[in-house]
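Title: Prediction job returns without error message
Component: structure pipeline
Severity: low
Priority: P3
Assignee: unassigned

Description:
Job completed but the reporter wants confirmation the result is attached to the right record. Sequence as submitted:
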Amino acid sequence: MKPWFGSPGVTSGLMLRILQCLFASASIATMAFSTGFSTATSFCFLISAMGLQVLWSFGLACLDIHALRVKKDLQSPILLSLVVVGDWVTAILALAAASSSAGVMVLYARDADICKLDPKLSCHLFQISIAFAFFAWFLLVISSHTILWLLASLS
């Protein structure tokens, strides 16, 4: 079977997982270095969800590296089912965290003008962190979609 873009055990799949890990890590680092992120629970939830995504993507990237080194085929239906379910769980959490953080950011920046009233808050860093989280989620959706179609084609 011809390898699909983004499927496990293929270089493109490894690159997607590495980029997911990097964007999620950048989201965590940006939020953690900003001042006042603990004022909103959704920002803390974003750090937690991105932490889970870093662990999940890093683990699958290690699996892809191992598969590429020993030239192992990772297209078994059981493994793909586990990866799809894990991708769905992390994608739902990442989207929920990024969306709730974006909603709080709209409240801070536009509705209540909290960013103007409290200059100690790093509102621009909050926005960058949320953008990184949405990029990480988008890459995770690409991986999940590819693996779902690969699983459907194997059945």
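Comment from assignee: result matches the submitted record. The mean pLDDT is 91.
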